[in-house]
Amino acid sequence: MEPRAPERFPRVDADGHLHNPGEWNAAVADELARRRGIALTPAHWVVLDALREYYFHFGSVPSVDSICRFFGDRREHVRGLFGTCLDAWLIAGLPNPGDVERARLRLM
Question: What is the CATH number of domain 41-107?
Answer without folding.
Answer: 1.10.10
